[in-house]
Amino acid sequence: MVKNFLGASKRYVLNHLDDPAIVLLYHRVTDLAIDPQMLSVKPDNFYEHVKFLKRNYYLLGIEEFSYNITKSKKMPSKSVMLTFDDGYADNYYEALPILESLDAQALFYITTSNLNTDYELWWDELERILLGSYVLPDYIETSSGKHVLRLPTSNTAERLTSYHSLHPYCKYSTPPERNRMIENLRESAEISAEGRKSHRLMTFEELKHLSESPASVIGAHTLNHPALSVLSYEQQQEEINQSKIFLENVLEYPVEHFSYPYGAKKDYNKKSMRICRETGFKMVCSNYYGQVHSRTNCFELPRILIRDWNKQNFSQYMTKIFQY
Ligand SMILES: [Zn+2]
Predict the structure, then answer these.
(1) 3-state SS class at 107
(2) Which of these, 73, 132, 174, 197, has the minimum number of CB atoms within 10 Å of its CB?
(3) At CA 122, angle to CA 120 and CA 128, rounded to 5?
């Protein structure tokens, strides 16, 4: 209660000094049969979101937003920036045409290791194995460190419980450990590594086409999507630097922006911020709820995660975000 009051008071003061701006976070624009992490927004809803923002807010281009925040300048009133994380193919096929048709621009942060492959990102693979249509034995096994994890999978409820219990183990493992856990799981379930077309990331060609549109700017989002906070300084450096270099080799122009995988305060640390600064990124986004002001640290900008809301729910949420 006291904390809420202090937070509201701080926002009240800050918002009188300069108008708040908001960064919105999307992941996918498509229609999925199941979406346990709620990362997808249906194309019709996304169209309504962008149209509503164009009419009622000031949808800034990435260059303008980045210039303002890196120079600690005040944003125009009701400023909003759009961002996407991860690099799903639907960003190119579904989101981009909508952005282009409404003359809007978004910043697309790309995880590079699964580009141009048939493999799914680990959380999608976990979903495919445990919540998909495969017939599974009564339990399947994997291991985390020295612990063997036996996951009950004899019915839908057990499969869902197993999915939710394994998810945090994978999220906070290093990429090699995580990949081994998923591989063990796949072997135990006798399922192939080839992913669903509906869950693939972009090809290099699609990424290049996306980058050539005036409706997009490309940023980096690591090689393997780890929680950076579980990695050593050197491992973080590899994930952050190499994803920038990888994208620059594909796109043949400088990549100046980055977002932390998962992006909550516990998912990155001061080392991550220092590496981002030393790597030469201009603007870095996190993923915690908050408004942006001219003095907000441009190496951990808060973002607002957007769900598959219809126009009415989206507009109510936008009003709430901008409130003092
Ligand atoms: Zn991500």
Answers:
(1) strand
(2) 197
(3) 65
Name every residue whose Cβ is closer than 8 Å to that of residue 262 and which is 6 or more positions away in sequence: 171, 227, 287
Residue 146, pLDDT score: 80
CA distance 203 to 305: 25
Distance, in Å, from the CA atom of 49 to the CA atom of 308, rounded to the nearest integer, reads: 10
Element (H, E) at 60: none
Provide the β-strand partners of residue 25. 83, 305
Enumerate long-range contacts of 144-148, CB under 8 Å, 24 or more apart. 144/169, 144/173, 144/177, 144/181, 145/177
Element spanning 51, H or E: helix 43-56
Say how many Å lie between the CA of residue 111 and the centre of ligand 1: 7
Blockwise average pLDDT, block size 10, the chain, 324 residues:
58 70 98 92 98 97 96 94 98 98 98 96 96 91 85 94 94 96 93 95 98 98 98 98 98 97 97 97 97 95 97 96 82
**Ligand 1: distance of its center to the CA of 34 in Å?**
19
Q: 109: which strand partners? A: 85, 219
Ranges of H-type helices in the chain: 2-17, 43-56, 62-70, 89-90, 96-101, 122-131, 156-171, 175-189, 204-212, 233-251, 270-279, 311-322
Q: Give the Cα separation of 179 and 151 in Å (integer).
A: 17
34, 133 Cβ separation under 8 angstroms: no
- The pLDDT value given to residue 314: 97
**Two tokens at 217?**
């700017």
Distance from residue 224's CA to the centre of ligand 1 (Å): 10
Angstrom distance (rounded) from CA 247 to CA 127: 28
**Distance between CA atoms of residues 11 and 293, nearest Å:** 10
Single pTM value for the model? 0.94
Residue type, 150: R
